[in-house]
Amino acid sequence: MAGGAKARRLPRVVRERQMVDAAVRCFARHGYQAASMDEIAELAGVSKPLVYLYLGSKEELFTACIRREAAALLGAVAAEVGEAEVPPDERLWAGLLAFFTYAAEHPDAWVVLSRQARTHGEPFAGEVARMRDEIVGFVAGLIGEAAGVVIAGRDVEALAQALVGSAESLASWANETPGVTAKEAAATLMNFAWAGLGNLLASPPEGGGFSRLAP
User: Fold this and answer.
1) Are 37 and 58 in contact (CB under 8 A)?
2) Burial group, residue 178, by CB count within 10 angstroms (0-12, 13-18, 19+)
3) Which end of the chain has the lower number of beta carbons within 10 A, N or C?
4) Which pLDDT does position 61 carry in this prediction?
5) Which of 208-211's residues contact partners 24+ apart within 8 Å by CB, and which partners?
6) Distance CA 161, CA 155 (A)
7) Is the pLDDT of residue 179 over 80?
8) Could you tell me if 65 and 30 are in contact, meaning their C-beta atoms sit under 8 angstroms apart?
């Protein structure tokens, strides 16, 4: 009895983490609309009133899930991109590997970020858009370092947008395809992206744009 009472007196931060963990799993499996606060409470091993007390409404809980997972993904990528002394291709590889590894190791979180949050409008889509903008910024910076003044700033942004969009689609595909590892997915995109950038730098377009790459 005493042991049970002690187990229930967990620090609030631990209880909140358990609730958000349960909510991420529930939202990923059922979607925002179908997810039940009763099921989230049951998965977390707490009462439903405690979920409301600690984390607020269902909308606030979903927002908390998005923010936590977005921050974790950004942190993983930023940590691996590293310092400017490392060549940009090595930093891009490290960032891509971190991105795909996070998506593979946290499949429920990736479903919430890549699918659920984007299909239910604001404020959820805005939270994911901010995360995506930061990742695009990382990638654009690395492409800009590699390209120097050879590629116009707008074209650097376009390449970064294309690369991040490809990474998002490929991560979802890799998670749903048996036998595809995070490293394999990252290598596929890295080889495709860096080879293409190398060709572009070898034959830079005249007057901006990508007209010289057309067949």
Assistant:
1) yes
2) exposed
3) C
4) 95
5) 208/152, 208/154, 208/155, 209/155, 210/155
6) 10
7) yes
8) no
Average of per-residue pLDDT values in the chain: 84
Question: Which residue do the tokens 């495709």 mark?
Answer: 192
Mean pLDDT of 129-140: 90
Give the Cα separation of 112 and 117 in Å (integer).
6
Q: What is the pLDDT of residue 96?
A: 92
End-to-end CA distance of the chain: 76
Instruction: Of 9, 105, 112, give the one whose Cα is nearest residue 68.
Output: 112
The residue count for the chain: 215
Q: Model's pTM, two decimal places?
A: 0.82
Backbone angles phi and psi of 117, in degrees to 5? -65, -30
- Whether the link from the prior residue into 123 is cis, omega within 30° of 0, is yes
Long-range pairs for 206-214: beta carbons < 8 A, 24 or more residues apart:
208/152, 208/154, 208/155, 209/155, 210/155
Token pair 């002394």: residue: 85
Contact between 143 and 160 (Cβ < 8 Å): yes
Residue with tokens 């049970």: 4
